[in-house]
Specification:
Helix 4 links the parallel strand 3 and strand 4. The chain has a six-stranded mixed sheet with strand order 2-3-4-7-8-11, with helices on both faces. It contains eleven helices and 13 strands. With about 350 residues, the chain is an alpha/beta fold.
């Protein structure tokens, strides 16, 4: 690797000091990145400031950590950080072993450290194996411990990907696990690694993980054991985000907008299909600024995003309610085992 680094450095230096034409490292890297991405969309090459290189991956990306009254422990993870690898037992110790089942919320989790995801599986799941396929070798990894007998529910969405899918897949294969979601997960099971050459970062795919029972999920995703109905309705999909809305206008698009404003706000307005002062005022309250007598496309996009978050929370709450019902119905059986 050192020889290859020296060759690349020499090549860049030759171009920089001898090429007659103006030379821009970033442009060369852009060309290389475009070529790499045509082969693999998850690989990249780019220039990075030396200060950025020193920044470590966050050690704690846990958004929610709570214990419900009916002994259900909930952990919501947005991503897996490198420094989390040895922290999962400490995190679970905060529940003082008072929970009968664990709810792992991986909805919209973008993945992260493979080692951290495997460490979590070792802490909460029964013994299993997973295959790591690399260019020159395949490796079977033992995951979990037969002493782990707590029931685990995994909440997923279509934006659950990468190492989060690794956790979801192993939970699906576990006799004490169940995956709940409204759709298949994203379908990214490839593993990336970063190589640093001076201030140039080369990020490439070095392998993929393949499940023992679920198999290869690339571009397919993981099908939940329990499929929930989506909250997002067809009315919302008809909202036109390209054209502005003027006060006094009377259109179907305004009717849809008023329904959305009522959904994401505590205040309610009359749904008339006409853009009146109450519609403008409620839009300003949601945006947190004045907009005058016109709702611009960028304002509609922000409302669109807020409504998507609202729907995501509704779907997430439905998943939690389902788990609570399942636990209450099987509580005697679950508590008997422990």
């Amino acid at each position: 690797m050192e020889k290859k680094n020296k060759i690349l450095r020499k090549l860049l230096n030759i171009l920089r000091y001898n090429w007659y034409y103006k030379f821009d490292v970033n442009k060369i890297l852009d060309i290389l990145a475009f070529t790499i991405k045509t082969i693999d969309k998850y690989s990249d090459i780019y220039y990075m400031n030396p200060i950025e290189k020193k920044k470590s991956v966050p050690s704690n990306n846990i958004e929610t950590l709570k214990l419900l009254d009916n002994k259900i422990a909930i952990i919501k993870i947005s991503s897996f950080g490198d420094e989390q690898c040895s922290d999962w037992e400490k995190i679970l110790e905060k529940f003082n072993n008072e929970y009968c089942c664990l709810v792992l919320d991986l909805c919209n989790c973008q993945g992260g450290s493979l080692e951290s995801a495997l460490s979590l599986c070792n802490t909460i799941l029964q013994k299993n194996t997973i295959q790591l396929a690399f260019k020159r070798k395949n490796q079977l990894i033992d995951v979990g411990d037969n002493n782990n007998r707590k029931i685990v529910y995994c909440l997923v969405s279509e934006n659950t990907l990468s190492s989060a899918e690794l956790v979801a897949g192993l939970i699906k294969e576990s006799p004490y696990g169940s995956v709940i979601g409204e759709n298949r997960t994203y379908g990214k099971n490839t593993i990336q690694k970063k190589f640093y050459i001076c201030n140039i970062v080369l990020k490439i795919t070095i392998g993929k993980f393949i499940f023992k029972q679920v198999g290869d999920i690339e571009n397919i995703g993981i099908l939940p054991d329990v499929i929930m109905e989506r909250y997002l309705d067809n009315t919302f999909e008809r909202l036109n985000l390209e054209r502005p809305i003027n006060i006094g206008e009377n259109k179907t698009n305004i009717y849809v907008l008023q329904k959305i404003l009522n959904a994401i706000s505590d205040k309610k307005i009359k749904i008339t299909g006409k853009c009146d002062e109450s519609t403008i005022k409620l839009t300003e309250e949601i945006l947190g600024r004045k907009i005058g007598n016109k709702i611009m496309p960028r304002d509609l996009e922000i409302i669109y995003y807020k409504y998507m978050l609202y729907c995501s929370r509704i779907e997430n709450d439905k998943q939690i309610i389902y788990v609570m019902k399942e636990v209450s119905e099987n509580e005697k059986k679950v508590l008997y085992e422990y």
